[in-house]
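hiii, so i know i said id send this last week but things got crazy w the move. better late than never?? heres the sequnce for the chain we talked about at the cafe, plus the structure i predicted for it. fair warning i was half asleep when i ran it
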Amino acid sequence: MAFTSFMSSTAGRTARIIAGLALVVIGLAVVGGTGGIVLAVVGLVPLGAGVANVCLFGPLLGSDLHGNPKST
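okay and structure toks below
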C-alpha cells in the first residue's frame, strides 16, 4: 500500500518525528495547561513511532509494524 510504503521510508519516519516534536512543542509552549499536556502526550506517539521506526497503522492495513507486506 502506498501509505505504509511511505511510512516505512526515511521521509515517512522523518515526518513522524517532526509531527511528534511539533505536537509536543505546541502543547507545552503554546497551549499550556491540561490541554497542552494532553497534546504533548499525544505527540509522543508519532515521535516514539518515528524513533522506533514502526508504523502503528501497518497491521490495520495488512502490513507488519515496519510497513512490510505480510506474507501469506
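btw Residues 25 and 40 are 7 Å apart (CA to CA). thought thatd interest u
miss u guys!!
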